[in-house]
Amino acid sequence: MNRYELGIVDTRNIIRTLDEQFKYDFKNYALTFFKRRLEYIITYHNLKDAEGLLKKLTADKQFLPELLRFLSVDCTEMFRDPSFWRVLKDEILPKAITNVGYKIWFPEVGSGEELYSLLIVLKTLNLTDKVRIFATSISERQLENIQKGYFLARKAEVNDANYKRVFSEGELKSYYKTAEEHAYWDTDLLKGVEFIHDKLIPEKGPKGVKLVLFRNQMIYFNQILQERYLKLLHHHLVPAGYLIIGNNEVIDYWNSDKDYNLVNDSERIFKKKLS
């Protein structure tokens, strides 16, 4: 399959249409990432060119949810960066979660691998009943797939290998079943998870959050959107609440040193300052 190559002018035209007609503002996404995703969508749906995508977008009401599914950032695998999950399991969560009602938020839950990874960690630590988890996404279809427990069976091997690098006992396969090319997580793990469909900059985020997982998302934003998101997350976090970002991401904006303390540099774990 030869991928269609999209021009910058056509890319910006699609961004403008999504904003003006559908109120999804992608103009502060990294242009290279956004362009690459659009090229994949055009090729995948045999749309020939940008004009074909725009025509389908305006003529087919079911295409926008499909487009948003492709534009949301996938997590790719379970327990990605196993060293991070070991720190979360052994050092952060056992000390932080002491009372019922501990709130954790995924501002963009993607395809759900990090959510299920966290749920398995919490179950292993017997902390499931003490937490409330909020999973937000721009894509209703991604949220539907997560709630069905769906993932690709071809990911099972790397998922299993990562699990063994995090846990000394047990097997990941006890949490899922396979059916031909597909696999399904045990959806009983989702007890206590609230799913929220929202805009690119979430407007329905929970208050009083004590831990935010926002790993490997900001690399797809420009500086303007990164700062807007970081300020939003700071607003929703309680003092001493944790913000966790990706290994290649930074918190760098005016006055950011007064908002967060760095807790773990290698795993990019921050704490909101008390004042």
General description of the model:
The chain is of the alpha/beta class and 275 residues long. The protein folds into two domains: 8-71, no CATH class; 82-272, Rossmann fold (3-Layer(aba) Sandwich). Helices cover 40% and strands 19% of the residues. The protein has nine helices and ten strands. The strands form two sheets. It has a seven-stranded mixed β-sheet. It has a three-stranded antiparallel β-sheet with strand order 3-5-4. β4 (176-179) and β5 (182-185) form a beta hairpin. α5 (82-96) packs across α8 (156-166). The longest helix has 15 residues, at 8-22. The radius of gyration is 19 Å and the shape is globular.
What proportion of the residues form beta strands (DSSP E)? 15-25%
Structural class by secondary-structure content: alpha/beta
Give me the CATH fold name of the largest domain. Answer: Rossmann fold
CATH architecture of the largest domain: 3-Layer(aba) Sandwich
Report the CATH C-level class of the largest domain.
Alpha Beta
The H-level CATH homologous superfamily of the largest domain, spelled out, is: Vaccinia Virus protein VP39
H and E order: HHHHHEHEHEHEEEEHEEE
Number of helices: 9
Span of the ends, CA to CA: 54 Å
Tally of structural domains: 2
User: Stretches where pLDDT falls below 50 for ≥5 residues?
Assistant: none
Radius of gyration: 19 Å
Strand tally is: 10
In which range does the helix fraction lie?
25-40%
How does the overall form come out from the CA principal axes? Answer: globular
